[in-house]
Design a protein that fits this description.
The structure holds three protein chains of three kinds. Chain A is an alpha+beta fold. Helices cover about 30% and strands about 15% of the residues of chain A. Chain A contains seven helices and six strands. In chain A, the strands form two sheets. Chain A has a three-stranded mixed sheet. The model of chain A has no long low-confidence stretch (mean pLDDT about 80). Helices cover about 70% and strands about 0% of the residues of chain B. In chain B, a hairpin with a 2-residue loop joins strand 1 and strand 2. The mean pLDDT of chain B is about 85. By secondary structure, chain C is an all-alpha fold. The model of chain C has no long low-confidence stretch (mean pLDDT about 80). Classes of the chains: A alpha+beta, B mainly alpha, C mainly alpha. Chains in contact: A-B, B-C. The interface between B and C is medium-sized, with 27 and 22 residues.
């Protein structure tokens, strides 16, 4: 049987019949209906620019996602074309879904040379859960969550993105970088 | 003889055309578009032919194409015969009710009395009730024959809900026929030529109870526990696809129109315009001769009737998109503990008033 | 013309009535019974008893059989799972009573067959079978049986409520 909550609300007989509330609700919805129905008229006459419609025509129009939105993770690419990543593997460990695969490569580390960089950096978006732990774990500001959420494919194998597909110039990520600095300031050095 | 047959066939064709050809498909569009406008959305407008969308009206065609081309699926372990015929059993009563529903009065066309009702039964009101009670089987058998637990639960809920609310409908109908003293729907309509004899004034409580109970009979929100999406997947038609599903859908939309027509005839003055008798209307168009004036008045009356039906359809759509679903025990409570005593009290008060007035 | 409708309808009824008895699954039996009721209603219409036909549909096909179906589905009897049927077959008292009933009906029918004139149908008044006439008959000639039946129904209703109430407590 149903579980009844005792709300300690005393209702009158008229209130308990729910008729006034039903009528109120129907008035509200029909008011919106007629408002929007005749909103077509000034819209077509040109007196108002837009109908009061909240939704957008999705593929043609798109909304600006807030900066805190977690889309697919991408790699930051320095101005000289190399990834900012040093292949430390922290994101690989932090990832709860095990969707990141890194194979590091290293050099002598002399002047104007990179000491470590990832030879292979794969993220399988079919497995990724968009938690943002990799971004939080990264000590080098190399991996960021973008606002791109349209990663549907007809084949699962295509959802495995390689390093070249993941790289995004660091200039495009400035807003997110600033946001993460504010967000994870306690832990960043 | 032949003339009568042709007239009857014409009336049947008219009803079928307006129900299956107009109301059922257009209402699917109306429901989408109206709900969208009520919720500040745009609504269906993507289906287009050569770039023209016409406010999304082509979605009707797209729907029809989809339903015709979908796989006709019969689940494993289902009773094939019953699974196939149950949509028909559900659809036929919805259409059959219109056999006794008049959509206009009586007119003299070419020296012939034409009554705008397919079959003017002496027991018209009871016929409507009987057909409504038969509609239960379509849904019950559909749920049982699907070999699916959700479907069975849905059909159990359907059976109990429809039985409960049939009682209210029957008792409300008794109040109406006590007032009008006839079970012929044509006579009930003809009496309401007088504005103050409209059912909504004579049976105000009956009006609300009939509306509530018939929405519950039609299993639409707020009484859609039998097909509750969030609880039972889709209730009794979970295992239906393609045109069979379409038939259940069509039955529901035709039943909306049926309810609207019945409400119009019983409570809202049938095909009459307030304070305007048929004789007055006829005298206005006297210059057209008997047949001409009768024709004009006939078209006016049919138009008025369907305008009222559309009003009730609109009302049901508004209710459907405004109210949340009742819990199952609340539906039963409303049916047996509130509506049943109220309808009995309604009969008692009606009887007392009639006794006092005589 | 009437016979042309009557014989198919009657055959339909008999076939479905046999279906009720011989069907293996309870749901199939119930559906056959519903079809039989509808056919019977059709025969009533053929006899100009519209009101009776509609009542047949409302009460038997529309209300009682829905409850039957409801109960059968609630118990969820499967095909061949017919312990109930076997119990019915071996019940001597039931068999004797049914036999008596059958004999009585046959006796009554044979009586009609030999006395009534088959070829001259009675001429019916226009008001035959209408709601008004039936109501008038019920409340004048048959007022006592009518009231007794209603009291019986009331008693059954009160009994059902009392039974349900004790079960809940």
């Amino acid at each position: 049987m149903a579980y009844y909550v005792n709300r300690n609300i005393k209702m009158t007989w008229w209130e308990r019949s729910y008729i006034p509330e039903i009528l109120k609700g129907m008035l509200l919805t029909s008011r919106r209906f007629f408002h929007n129905l005749f909103g077509f008229v000034p819209f077509f006459l040109g007196t108002t620019k837009e109908r009061p419609i909240m939704t957008v025509y999705y593929p043609e129009e798109q909304v600006q996602y807030p900066i805190a939105y977690r889309g697919r993770p991408v790699l930051a690419q320095n101005e000289d074309g190399m990834p900012a990543c040093v292949a430390c593997g922290l994101c690989e460990i932090a990832c709860p879904a095990y969707c990141i695969h890194i194979e590091p490569a290293e050099d002598s580390g002399k002047q104007n040379q990179y000491e470590r960089w990832p030879e292979v950096f794969d993220i399988d978006y079919a497995i990724c859960i968009f938690c943002g732990n990799c971004e939080e774990a990264c000590p080098e500001e190399a991996i960021f969550m973008s606002d791109d959420c349209e990663i549907s494919m007809l084949d699962r194998k295509q959802m495995l993105y390689t390093k070249e597909q993941l790289l995004v110039p660091v200039a495009d990520l400035q807003k997110r970088i600033e946001f993460t600095r504010n967000m994870y300031a306690k832990w960043n050095y | 003889m032949w003339v009568d047959l042709i007239i009857t066939l014409a009336k049947i064709l008219f009803i079928l055309a307006i129900l299956v050809g107009f109301f059922a498909p257009v209402l699917t569009w109306v429901e989408r578009k109206q709900s969208a406008l009520m919720q500040d959305r745009v609504g269906a407008n993507r289906a287009d032919i050569l770039g023209f969308t016409v406010l999304g009206l082509f979605h009707i065609i797209a729907d029809a194409v989809k339903m015709f081309t979908k796989e006709d699926f019969i689940p494993d372990g289902a009773n094939k015969v019953l699974h196939t015929i149950s949509p028909v059993i559900a659809l036929v009563p919805a259409l059959l009710t219109f056999a006794v529903v008049p959509f206009g009065g009586q007119y003299t066309l070419f020296d012939k009395e034409v009554n705008l009702v397919i079959s003017d039964l002496d027991v018209g009101l009871l016929f409507v009730f009987a057909i409504a009670s038969l509609a239960t089987y379509g849904y019950v058998i559909a749920g049982w024959s699907s070999n699916n637990n959700w479907s069975l639960l849905g059909s159990m809920r359907t059976a109990s809900q429809m039985i409960s609310y049939e009682v209210t409908i029957g008792l409300t109908i008794i109040g109406v026929l006590m007032v009008y003293g006839s079970m012929k729907l044509t006579e009930i309509g003809a009496i309401q030529e007088n504005f103050w004899m409209w059912g909504i004034f004579l049976q105000p409580l009956g009006f609300f109870m009939f509306l509530t109970a018939s929405i519950a009979e039609n299993k639409r929100i707020p009484f859609d526990a039998p097909e509750a999406e969030s609880e039972l997947v889709a209730g009794y038609f979970t295992e239906y696809s393609g045109l069979k599903f379409g038939m259940f859908f069509m039955a529901e939309f035709i039943e909306i129109v049926t309810i609207g027509a019945l409400m119009t005839i019983l409570f809202l003055g049938a095909w009459h315009i307030p304070f305007l008798t048929t004789a007055t209307l006829l005298s206005w168009f006297d210059f057209l001769g008997t047949t001409g004036s009768n024709l004009v008045v006939m078209f006016i009356h049919v138009g008025v009737f369907f305008a009222k039906v559309v009003f009730f359809v609109y009302l049901q759509m508004i209710i459907r998109w405004t109210l949340p679903r009742f819990r199952y025990d609340q539906i039963m409570k409303l049916g047996w503990k509130i509506l049943l005593p109220l309808s009995l009290a309604n009969i008692l008060v009606t009887g007392l008033v009639i006794l006092a007035l005589n | 013309m009437e016979l042309l409708i009557f014989y198919p309808l009657a055959g339909f009824c008999v076939v479905l009535a046999l279906g009720v008895v011989l069907n293996n699954s309870p749901v199939g039996s119930a559906i056959s019974l519903i079809g039989m009721m509808l056919g019977l209603a059709g025969i009533f219409v053929l006899q100009q008893a519209h009101f009776l036909a509609i009542l047949q549909i409302i009460i038997y096909a529309g209300a009682i059989m829905v409850l039957f179906m409801f109960v059968i589905m609630l118990l969820n009897l499967k095909e061949g799972d017919d312990t109930g049927w076997i119990a019915r077959e071996r019940n001597l008292l039931l068999s004797v009573l049914t036999g008596l009933l059958a004999v009585g009906i046959l006796y009554k029918i044979s009586g009609i067959l030999f006395t009534a004139e088959m070829d001259t149908p009675a001429i019916l008044p226009d008001s035959f079978g209408t709601v008004a006439t039936i109501g008038e008959t019920l409340f004048t000639d048959f007022v006592l049986p009518f009231e007794v039946a209603s009291i019986l129904l009331l008693a059954a209703m009160v009994g059902a409520v009392v039974l349900a109430k004790t079960k809940l407590d």
